[in-house]
From TrEMBL:
Biased composition (Basic and acidic residues): 1-10
Keywords assigned: Membrane, Transmembrane, Transmembrane helix
Name of the protein this chain belongs to: DUF4307 domain-containing protein
InterPro entries linked to this entry: DUF4307
Highest taxon of source: Bacteria
Region annotation (Disordered) ranges: 1-64
Spans traversing the lipid bilayer: 72-93
């Protein structure tokens, strides 16, 4: 018989299955001693992370090395996002915010196949300065068929109501206030 099968436990020696000394159980498993039931085939002992030559580590950084942190990244990105937001807000305000000269179409009347009357009002932040507006005549498909520049003379009121006649090359169906400006061309000046 082999030494393995001759091994027996005495009554005063704790058996590995009965919760004896862990070191003895581990030694028994490592040395290959014990009964055939305790060791299955050619299994190798498992190494654990807390063996004496490899202490248990508390964090991933201790095991694999620490990644360099870029503490400046968050503040720089935050400032960048704020600056970008301010730029977008400024562009939006300039594009869609209140204008110095703000026209509003009130209506129109088709007079004949080549004439239309536009009715509109203009609100200015500086009513003491002259301004001008482009008024367009549009056909039923939305194409421009006539255009006129209208001088808005200085006044005491911030808002003035105007009517103007626009000649067209085809039957007009509507009018449109294309835009207004404060730099009046020399040929539109009254006087």
């Amino acid at each position: 018989m082999s030494e393995r099968s001759e091994r027996t436990t005495s009554a005063d020696e704790p058996s590995p299955a009965s919760g004896g000394d862990d070191a003895e159980v581990e030694q028994s498993a490592l040395s290959g001693s014990g009964t055939g039931d305790e060791q299955l085939g050619d299994a190798t002992p498992l190494e654990t992370a807390h063996t004496p030559d490899r202490p248990r580590s508390g964090s991933v950084g201790d095991r694999y090395g620490r990644k360099t942190t870029r503490r400046w990244m968050l503040p720089v990105l935050s400032v960048g996002v704020v600056v970008l937001g301010l730029i977008i807000a400024y562009i939006g305000y300039k594009q869609f915010g209140p204008k110095d000269i703000d026209p509003e179409q009130l209506g129109y009347t088709v007079i004949d196949d080549s004439t239309i009357e536009a009715h509109f009002k203009v609100t200015r932040t500086h009513p003491d300065q002259a301004a001008f507006c482009f008024v367009r005549a549009m056909d039923k498909d939305g194409n421009e068929v006539g255009r006129r520049e209208v001088l808005i003379t200085p006044s005491t009121s911030g808002t003035v109501e105007l009517k103007t006649i626009v000649r067209s090359v085809a039957r007009p169906a509507a009018t449109d206030i294309y835009g207004c400006g404060g730099k009046v061309p020399a040929y539109l000046r009254a006087g």
